[in-house]
């Protein structure tokens, strides 16, 4: 939650507040004054600290209508030594509903509601940024593939995404502040792998951006492309990349080679089981993570690293005959494990790959925004007891676990905190 330096690179380090249940702006102010402030005081006691703020569409609408409410939130941030450097706009409905699952992608980018919500979040971020400053709003790449996929879907997504781009161009001209959008690939969604995203960006999104900005803003083709490349890029979630068995250094290197900006990085890791067919104890232990709120996509790779198994959620895995896992060498599950957690001797994590991705980004100075995103503390607590599944006492609340994530990150990557 602060500007930090590692390897000569300065960036904002925060955690995503999507972990905190909140349905109103008052709820947001309560968690900012409570656990967020608690973690800031423990880990970053000197000066103000960055916060990755999760706001729903309803909250953003309320803040846009009610200037008094916005000023109250401003005051809460200032009183607790916090400033908003990025917004998690991926889930804009109720992220702590009893069942979220595939609704986390709603509305999709084929719906104008996603454009309107993203523009509203961009306006709020511009309000919080300093003059001349830049920040990022993270959003899904498109639509849940379980609903639809194909060229027509991509073109519809590009239409509404470039409507957002026009707004960002106008917002920058009007305010002098740069709000960027980081599209976040996730298994079973549009452009779920970095290679897919690069192809979509170059073949569909850029041409649509040039067409609109030339025709409707009078920009040259070169200026339109420059605007798209400056304001539209990728948010890389290392848990998602691990589930797809993408090498983080190769994927992020390909992104840079394509001239697409890494707008932000989510430090996160997935659950992993080695040779699941011969590990019945690990498979049984994995059932602890089969909870009803979030989608936990499953991918399996053979000994050569080829993905040979893809399932949209854990129940499908447990319904499979064990022999169908015989060729799977590594099984990975989209369940955000705390970044300090390497496993419990039964179930492992992709922490090593996550570390490789973070080091690649720091050494290459690819982004100014790094976010620790472990939104599963609530559901992990529900399936654990005593010391809990991640080794944190269940009665301590997850602020302690989040603080431990920061300590591990600072220690592991040689981070120096400014101020």
Could you explain the architecture of this structure?
- The protein is an alpha/beta fold.
- It has one domain: TIM Barrel (Alpha-Beta Barrel), CATH 3.20.20.
- Strands 3-4-5-6-7-8-14-2-1-15 form a 10-stranded mixed beta sheet. Strands 11-10-12-9-13 form a 5-stranded antiparallel beta sheet.
- Strand 4, helix 4 and strand 5 form a beta-alpha-beta unit.
- Helix 6 crosses helix 7.
- It starts with a strand and ends with a strand.
Overview in brief:
With 419 residues, this protein is α/β, with parallel strands linked by helices. It contains 14 helices and 15 strands. A hairpin with a 2-residue loop joins strand 1 (2-6) and strand 2.
Structural class: alpha/beta
Strand content: 15-25%
Give the tally of structural domains. 1
Oligomeric assembly:
single chain
- Which architecture per CATH? Alpha-Beta Barrel
What's the level 1 CATH class? Alpha Beta
Number of helices: 14
Mean pLDDT: 94
How are the elements arranged and paired?
Blueprint: E1 2-6, E2 9-15, H1 25-43, E3 49-54, H2 57-65, H3 67-79, E4 82-88, H4 112-128, E5 134-140, H5 151-175, E6 178-184, H6 194-217, H7 221-231, E7 232-237, H8 238-243, H9 248-257, E8 262-267, E9 269-274, H10 280-286, E10 298-301, E11 307-311, H11 314-318, E12 330-337, E13 348-349, H12 351-364, E14 369-372, H13 377-382, H14 398-412, E15 416-417
Parallel strand pairs: 2-14, 3-4, 4-5, 5-6, 6-7, 7-8, 8-14
Antiparallel strand pairs: 1-2, 1-15, 9-12, 9-13, 10-11, 10-12
């Amino acid at each position: 939650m602060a500007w930090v330096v590692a390897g000569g690179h300065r960036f904002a380090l925060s955690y995503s507040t999507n972990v905190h249940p909140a349905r109103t702006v008052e709820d947001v102010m309560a968690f900012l004054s409570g656990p967020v402030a608690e973690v800031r005081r423990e880990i970053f006691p000197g000066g103000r600290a960055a916060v990755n703020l999760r706001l729903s569409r309803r909250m953003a609408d309320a803040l846009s209508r009610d200037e008094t409410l916005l000023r109250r939130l401003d005051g809460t941030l200032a009183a607790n030594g916090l400033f908003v450097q990025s917004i998690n706009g991926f889930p804009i409905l109720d992220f702590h509903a009893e069942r979220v699952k595939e609704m986390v992608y709603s509305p999709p980018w084929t719906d104008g509601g996603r454009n309107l919500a993203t523009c509203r979040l961009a306006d709020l971020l511009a309000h919080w940024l300093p003059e001349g400053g830049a920040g990022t709003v993270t959003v899904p790449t498109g639509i849940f593939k379980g609903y639809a996929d194909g060229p027509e879907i991509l073109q519809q997504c590009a239409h509404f995404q470039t409507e957002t781009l026009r707004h960002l161009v106008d917002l920058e001209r009007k305010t002098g502040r740069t709000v960027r959008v980081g599209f976040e690939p996730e298994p079973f969604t549009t452009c779920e792998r970095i290679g897919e995203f690069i192809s979509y960006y170059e073949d569909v999104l850029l041409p649509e951006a040039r067409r609109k900005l030339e025709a409707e803003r009078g920009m040259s083709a070169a200026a339109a492309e420059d605007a798209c490349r400056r304001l539209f890029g990728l948010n890389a979630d290392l848990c998602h990349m691990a589930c797809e068995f993408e090498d983080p250094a190769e994927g992020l290197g390909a992104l840079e080679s394509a001239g697409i900006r890494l707008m932000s990085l989510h430090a996160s890791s997935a659950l992993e089981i080695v040779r699941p067919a011969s590990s019945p104890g690990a498979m049984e232990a994995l059932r602890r993570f089969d909870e009803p709120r979030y989608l936990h996509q499953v991918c399996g790779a053979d000994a050569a690293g080829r993905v040979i198994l893809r399932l949209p959620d854990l129940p499908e895995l447990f319904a499979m005959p064990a022999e169908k896992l015989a060729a799977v060498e590594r099984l990975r599950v989209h369940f955000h494990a705390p970044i300090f957690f390497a496993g419990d001797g039964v179930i492992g994590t992709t922490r090593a790959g996550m570390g490789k991705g973070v080091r690649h980004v720091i050494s290459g100075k690819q982004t100014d925004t790094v976010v620790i995103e472990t939104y599963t503390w609530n559901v992990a607590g529900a399936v654990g007891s005593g010391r809990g599944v991640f080794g944190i006492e269940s009665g301590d609340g997850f602020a302690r676990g989040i603080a431990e994530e920061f300590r591990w990150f600072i220690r592991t990557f040689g981070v120096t905190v400014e101020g």
